[in-house]
Amino acid sequence: MVNPRGGVTMYLSYDEAVQVGLNAYRTLEYASSCLSAFRVASGEFREYLEDNNLSYSPELIQQWINDSKKYWNHSKLKCSKKALRVLADIMDHGVITTSLQTKIQRMPPYRRLPNWSSTLLDNYLATVNCSFGTSYLTQIRNACARFFIFLELAGVTQHSEITHDMVKFFFTQEIHISTKAKDRYDNEIRRCLMYMADQGLISKTIGLALNKFVIPDLIIVADLPEHESHRFSRFFNAPEKEILQSKAKFDAAAMQLTNLHDCRHYSPYIRKSDLQALRDFNVFMDANRFAYSNELALEWLEFQRAIWSRVKYLTFRRVLLSIHEILRTGTLTTIIFSTHDSKYSLPEWGNDLLSQYLQERKREGCAASTLDMIKNSCSRFIVFLDRLGVISEKGITPEVVKDFQAQDHHRTVAGKNAYAMKIRGFLRFLARKGLVTETLELTISTEIAPHTSIVTTLSDDQIDAIYTFRRNVNRPIGLRNAAIIMLGLRMGLRTSDIANLQLADISWREGSISFIQQKTGVHLKLPLPTDVGNSLYRYLREGRPPSDSPHVFVHHRAPYCRFARGSFGRLLKAAVVVQRNREATHGFHVTRKTYASKLLANGTPVPTIAAALGHVGVDSVDEYLATHEDNIRQCAIGLTGIEYAGGFDL
């Protein structure tokens, strides 16, 4: 008969197969109960075949078992399945292959352990003996014994030889009938490893490594291909003393970070993410015997970047950069770490001059956003000069400036003009230092003529929608948003001044707000309208979370710091849309324009409007004149004396 695996197999008769099975049970020293169960099951199955005039086949075994399930108890079913599996093995191969085990193979794993691991396991079980029942202790013992047998086969003769890569190899090679069973076994082994770590027998991170969330990210540099392992080569060969000292500092900073986030009431999710990042990086350092450094942390993050999700990468990056700041400054003040790398690589001469110019503008009181734009504008110019081979400011000529402007493309003419103005200021700075001619700034052309456009304001329907939103809101975040919108709509405050408004700036006794404007640096004191005061009071009493921040408006999630102005336009739009008004709101600054236009429409003198807006002069109010349609009509000029002259017989 042809064997499905190839070749020819001579099958035994049924009685011969039964006899082979009985002999095997005796030879392998199985208990008499096992031998008896085989004899009974094979005899009953033979009766089944004879009564139904059937010939043996493996399918009939399964059919007979299925038909008999409802008559057998659990013990009978289990013994019959085992016995007929042995019979099928013999009928298929003529001999026993894998259906029976030797006496040593049948021996419980813990009885096969060497003395060092057997003693260690007994000591561990003694510590948990009072916490669990007998059956669960047996499960713990079996799980740990499997791990120690694996170590013995790997040549480990003492606990000090257990390494992270062995744990990783065990995790990937150990197979269980289900993921749930594997998790259960790994958890028991990890607890045993943590016990060994507490006893000072192994590193703590070896136990931490046996985790299905850690193992996939555990990098063993020695196992990496050469083109990848070279990225970490500069971190090898650190003295043992340096490794220990750096790890001690890292652990202290990690503890400080955890305490800071606890004190600042960060969410459980954030604190859990902190622990995961610190754990995984700690395991990586220990597994490869690396000393801690921020450069190592950044290289590790970059290596994992292609594997991790963006959320995980940014989360772990935030944690490790926080550790670096704590080690560098002794505390943590940064809330958001920028993910933007420098766009431009400047030559040394250009970088020095630009730094001096930025320091000068900073002393003049320029805002951070203005300084960023100056830096970007001038960096584009300096990079262009560097590409042309210009090695100092002496190489900046009118021809070079013109060539730069010809190739400097922007999405809009207004954008190009804004950048050109910043570069013109830089050239003016160089001229004051005597590095370029005073007229060089004139080579920067103006791309767009000054113009005045009619301002956009909120419609009456949109204003009604805002007041409806204010009346109906009752949640803390909504109360905050309503107060912010009212400050813009009823007092004309800029977003920067609302965001920077502090509790000390509000005088409830005088009914006023006083502050120094961020844009102009001019002090401004304004009366507090009743509806604005009520919105502020309600937010402070009912909506604002407990916070040490001096600012009025704070985030409603830890660390409860100042609420930045970047979201103001979005919250204004949301307040209007909530009332089913889909008209565009054109950003939060529209509230300031609406405020000024309403003052003008009510007949408020222009100097008073300028003072309320915090403007130094009255000229800036002119753009709001066009919003007062009734008064503009009075400015119309008659057409008397301007007769039409032309064709078409008109």
Overview of this protein structure:
The protein is mostly helical and 650 residues long. The protein has 5 domains: 14-106; 109-217, DNA polymerase, domain 1; 221-329, no CATH class; 348-443, Tyrosine recombinase, N-terminal domain (DNA polymerase, domain 1); 460-631, Intergrase catalytic core (hpI Integrase, Chain A), CATH 1.10.443. Helix content is 57%, strand content 2%. A 3-stranded antiparallel β-sheet has the order 1-2-3, with no helix packed on it. The longest helix is centred in the middle third of the chain and has 24 residues, at 240-263. Residues 1-10 have low confidence and may be disordered.
Could you give a quick summary of the protein structure above?
The chain has helices at residues 14-27, 32-51, 58-68, 74-93, 103-106, 115-128, 134-153, 164-173, 179-198, 204-209, 226-229, 240-263, 268-288, 294-304, 310-329, 348-363, 368-387, 398-407, 413-432, 460-472, 476-491, 495-500, 530-543, 568-578, 590-601, 606-613, 629-633; strands at residues 506-507, 512-516, 523-527.
| Tally of discrete structural domains | 5
Number of strands: 3
The Cα radius of gyration reads: 40 Å
What is the approximate shape? elongated
CATH class of the largest domain, anyone? Mainly Alpha
Task: List the keywords.
DNA polymerase, domain 1, 3-stranded antiparallel sheet, mainly alpha, 650 residues, disordered N terminus
Question: SSE layout and pairings?
Answer:
Elements: H1 14-27, H2 32-51, H3 58-68, H4 74-93, H5 103-106, H6 115-128, H7 134-153, H8 164-173, H9 179-198, H10 204-209, H11 226-229, H12 240-263, H13 268-288, H14 294-304, H15 310-329, H16 348-363, H17 368-387, H18 398-407, H19 413-432, H20 460-472, H21 476-491, H22 495-500, E1 506-507, E2 512-516, E3 523-527, H23 530-543, H24 568-578, H25 590-601, H26 606-613, H27 629-633
Helix pairs in contact: 1-2, 1-4, 2-4, 3-4, 6-7, 7-9, 12-13, 12-15, 13-15, 14-15, 16-17, 17-19, 20-24, 21-23, 21-24, 21-25
